[in-house]
Amino acid sequence: MTRGSETYDGRAAGVAGTAGTAEAAGPAEVAVTSRGLPGWLDPVADVARSVRPEQLSRFLPPESGAGRQSAVLILFGEGENGPELLLMERAGSLRSHAGQLSFPGGALDPADGDPETTGPLRAALREAEEETGLDPSGVQVFGVLPRLYIPVSNFVVTPVLGWWREPSPVGVVDSAETASVFTIPVADLTDPANRVTSVHPRGHSGPAFLVGPALVWGFTAGVIDKILHYAGWERPWDRSRQVPLDWHA
User: Fold this and answer.
1) Which whole-number Å values give the CA distances from 180 to 86, 92, 117, 149, 247, in the listed order?
2) Which of 87-101, 138-152, 216-230 has the lowest mean pLDDT?
3) pTM to 2 decimals?
4) How far, in Å, CA of 125 to CA of 184, rounded?
5) How many CB atoms lie within 10 A of CB 23?
6) CA neighbours within 13 Å on the CB side: how many for 16?
7) How many CA atoms lie within 13 A of 47 on its CB side?
8) Residue % of the chain over a pLDDT of 90
9) DSSP character at residue 175
10) 207 has which bridge partners?
């Protein structure tokens, strides 16, 4: 893949941010381009081009290459209340991250292609279609963030950035995987009233977001937090405001 005059190669820096056009190495071509994005998304595209893995998380893929390769789709759209993100609630019966609010995504399949290049792009779009029913042809992939690691599930995750150029209906496709599908305005995520620090029963803490009666925490909240920060969208919020993960019980 290319980024301007640079070569996009997943081996170079986990998976570096991109813009330009991607050449697929598998069954279908995947284009990665920032051309034609709405102006409000330019700061996010800039993040994809410049952010380093350690700026996003202290949990980085093992140097040994261990870990299950996966990808998530961070899909931005334009709704009635302005810019928004697509999220889903994972089914409570799943073995990993049950009941959590998350980006659509999952593990790479062999048919997705090379995990070091364009495989994560196909996986993110495929999983989003399987979990939410969205039409991937209406999604413009405009960047890729560096690979991150989720120790508790041993997933090596590639966050794929998308612009919902042509929105399509979404909803629960398989209740065994997904409990609900929804969009949330970016304005709600930047609202200091919805920003809290989640506290896990084991003692560790991290940024979180109040979304109606639910809480976005963990990996998903951490990535959203960093995007807001490095895109310049973050508003000052009270990090001392703590919420236990069983707050709604």
Assistant:
1) 11, 11, 31, 25, 20
2) 87-101
3) 0.87
4) 19
5) 13
6) 17
7) 25
8) 73
9) T
10) 197
CB proximity list for 195: less than 8 A, separation 6 or greater:
207, 208, 209, 210, 237, 238, 241
In the chain, the N- to C-terminal Cα span, in Å, equals 47
What average pLDDT does the segment 7-31 reach? 44
Overall residue count recorded for the chain in this entry: 249
What are the pLDDT digits (tens) for 124-142? 999 999 999 999 999 999 9
Spatial contact of 146 and 125, defined as CB atoms under 8 Å apart: no
pLDDT recorded at residue 176: 85
Q: How far apart are CA 147 and CA 118, in angstroms?
A: 13
User: Would the pLDDT of 8 be above 60?
Assistant: no
Distance CA 137, CA 139 (A): 6
Query: Are 83 and 185 a contacting pair, CB within 8 Å?
Result: yes
Rounded CA-CA distance 72/164 in Å is 15
User: How large a percentage of the chain has pLDDT more than 70?
Assistant: 85
- CB 160, CB 115: distance < 8 Å: no
- Could you give the 3-state DSSP secondary structure of residue 243? strand
188 contacts 91 by C-beta, under 8 angstroms: no
pLDDT value at position 143?
Answer: 98
Provide the token pair at 121: 């792009």
Backbone angles phi, psi at 112, to 5 degrees: -75, -20
